[in-house]
Design goal:
By secondary structure, the chain is α+β, with helices and mostly antiparallel strands. It is 55% helix and 13% strand. It is built from 20 helices and 13 strands. The strands form three sheets. Strands 2, 3, 4, 5, 7, 8, 12 and 13 form an eight-stranded mixed beta sheet that branches. Strand 12 and strand 13 form a beta hairpin. Helix 2 crosses helix 8, helix 12 packs antiparallel against helix 19 and helix 13 packs across helix 16. The chain starts with a strand and ends in a 20-residue tail after the last strand.
Length: 641
Amino acid sequence: MSETLTNDRDIDTTARRWLLVASGMFAVAWGGNEFTPLLVMYRLDHGFSAVVVDTFLFAYVLGIIPAMLICGPLSDRLGRRPIMLPATAIAAAGSILIALGPDNAYMLFGGRVLSGIALGIGMAVGGSWVKELSSRDATAKPGAGARRAAMSLTAGFALGAGVAGVLAQWAPWPTHLAYSVHVLICIVAGIGMLSVPETRTATVASKNRKLLDDLRIPSASHRRFLFVVLPLAPWVFGAASVAYAVLPSLMADALADEPGGGYPVALSAAMAVIALGSGFAIQAVGRRIDTPANARGALVALSLLVVGMAVAAWAASVLTIAAALIAAAVLGCGYGMALVSGLQEVQRIAGPDDLAGLTAVFYSLTYLGFAVPAVLSALTETWPGVVTYPIIFGFGAVMAAICGLVVRVRVLRTWRGAKRARGEAAVWSDKALGSPRCMNTNGRAPARRRRFGSESMITALAALATVGALAGCSNDPVTTQDSGAAEEVGTIDLQNVSVGAELTGATPEGSASAYGNATLEFTAVNEAETETDRLLEISSPAATSVSIDATADQLVIEPGTSIAAGQAVENLDAGDDGTDRPFTVALELADGELAPGTSIPFTFEFERAGSVTVDAPFDVYEPGESTDTARPLPPEVTPAP
């Protein structure tokens, strides 16, 4: 029995629910960062040393990392709701404990750990929940889940720090009022999340599997994770901690002789807001910077961090408010771009069964950056006058440049492999590409691919594509036909996309009623090495409905395999003849310019790769005309071992 998927899915009830989960992430992020601008207050007014205060800052990392590494995979096993819902209550408990013990190091430390646990749950589980809810939002653009999660966290970090700093500087009860505001926010956000539906239900199979097995994240060994995400991740909060923890502390000492002490808590809050506000702003345009092919987002982030650390070194030398604010803004841009591009990389790499787990690994790496203030304080106190902050920040700029070089080398290596593969293909098929039978319907030769991945995989795919091109240009009329449109998104390669309809002749040509039995044909190849993807939906402004008549299993695209609608598809593990039977995509056309030879835009949405729009050529056939033209099979692909 098959199920019919349409673009009229009932998504309105859940499409905007991501906002409620985002509010929960906002609340736990508020609690995680409201303490930061108050570091100066605890050091100046409550007698704690710089090392102890910076240890308080790092303490919540001790809650964040275990919470993410355990709760992320646990939510993959049990669902998002039961793990995420307690997060706001834990965050509120952390604020209450901190408010009750402003002079007690143990209570401050314990409260920070609770804040970290809540934030860890929010980042790993809440971020995955937002991503999955965003995939049901018809208005969401590719990568929306990562951007929404990153911006929710950044907004919470910024407003939590800003409000807490203002209240502590000028409002009564400086050690209590800010935390009371946070408790109220947690209550409201927690109630709001109660109405959000589950997006990942627990399965019976998970009950028979050891939790330890769920805690293993195989995709963390993915080469793109190791050579793109890993060099980037610690800089996320490494940059942030320099911007709104280290520099404000230096400025507080420099302004101590100013009238009123220079309002150190307010200045610390302002630097946090500027840094995180800059990060929020750049995340809003991150989708235009980041690309799945060449890690441009990561490279831009590391470039900003090189500049930011250099400016921080200058600010630490001159110790002026203007210099400090400039440094905070640049470092904030680096933080924001690093966070959103890192999350987008993770969501491309992870499969549906380890999305929260790999997200947790990424965030755990990012929070290593919060050890920076404590380490720097210890170094400068151990070797005063020898190890200075300008020297340390200058060294940080060099290290950021080295990390950028690692990412760049990885990108160049895969790009050169792709270039060599394309060069070989050109030698074999230049003559074939000139044949009219190998032209696209627009009269142009098919565009050469740009695929960034394993060099051996690229070469193999290029060679196989060449064989397919030569076969398609033979004199056999059975295997010669226009290839249709082609497009790529993530690791998915769409091929032979076209629309066919029967010409009824009942009404003038150009009206939708002039055509019947309209169908969409395509092949979707998953060129990933390890990640499975799934076709979720197809839509078009030229169709009132698009119905995919397929079982759920038929829409799953394993690594190195393909699916097809209306045309043959060859997979190595698909049975005796190596060929899967295609499914059908039926259309109800809307009125418009539907004359033969025009193109119709279709948007394909994939679970991992995201959305892509393809202009499919439109053709018609007479009633009774055979449409079984035996299209050539797509290039054979080899599944990853």
